[in-house]
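Worked example 2:
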Amino acid sequence: MKPSMLSIVIIALLGIALTGTLYAQDITGDWQGTLKAAKDLRLIARISKQLDGSLQLRILAADQNPPDWGSGNLANSVSLEGSDFKFTADSVKASYEGKLSPDGNSITGTFSQGKPLPLDLYRATKETAWRDPAPHTDQFITVDKDVRLEVLDYGGSGQPLVLLAGMGNTAHIFDRMAPKLIDQFHVYSITRRGFGASSMPPSGYAADRLGDDVLKVIEVLKLNRPILAGHSVAGEELSSIGSRHPEKVAGLVYLDAAYSYAIYDPSCTTPQIPSSPPASPRNASVAIQSGTQKYTSIKSPALAIYAAPREGATVDAAALAREGCAKAFEKVVPSSRIVRLPGAAHHVFMTNAADVMKEIRAFVASLKR
């Protein structure tokens, strides 16, 4: 029997409805694929849903150097319309266009960064996901309403040591250093709100709020007066805690982090603290920069490690500004130890790992428990 025209129309409409339902499915999670360039490059597209329902995507190079499995580059647009999936990431001048498969488990498409290259993405499963090779366990700790932070536990015995990443990095940036400290410490690291796998709320980026996030992690993990070590802008979280709740920590380690956002003094002028914060921060980094506070009294014992010019090198304005901060920190925090590492780069715990670990061990040994 031939189908009637009405039945054909019904079948066609049903097909359209089913297709619409299919491509309205949840595509959040990790998608991974290998870009066939001059050298094979494993890419992970990490898709999450924001509070307003929009999609957010981070592109992570699984074999990047330095290794930070949690950071990646944030796409400034991402969309799924029907089966058409697209994203652009202006920060790395990249874009992608592809087709989502009917079963929702793969995307066939083209990645463009200078020139177009084929890139098929596959939904990562528990069995197939490319994993961070570092020896740690992962957990998420609630620190505020609708805010959970990624916390890595590297294990170890002894006094707890909590590592805080700089701007744009995540807890995973310490994957190389942390395992080398577990002989003396039980080592943890935290991804702050707004970055990596941690929650990305629209607010809560003032320095003291970020400090409170760290304190909540310490409370939930039941850590007894840990050592806090922070890189770069994490200096503000250290100073927030060291000025308001010094009894909660045994000591603070500033890894090229004791600058104007961590210590307020006329002789410390780098970087400039914004005088008029933007009304609507575009992203977490801007929100953090606009949420800096003026810390003038840090009561915890502190070790401040600075990257310094090589011996005999020309001292430029930036180096002079950093030195001004070092002297200011020494003045404001009389109990501090100041260490200058000639020739070190901003990521001192990478470029001068042995020196940094030696200084941390010596600093902790000097503390009264």
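Residues 207 and 292 are 5 Å apart (CA to CA). Helices lie at 5-23, 207-221, 235-244, 284-290, 317-332, 348-351, 353-366.
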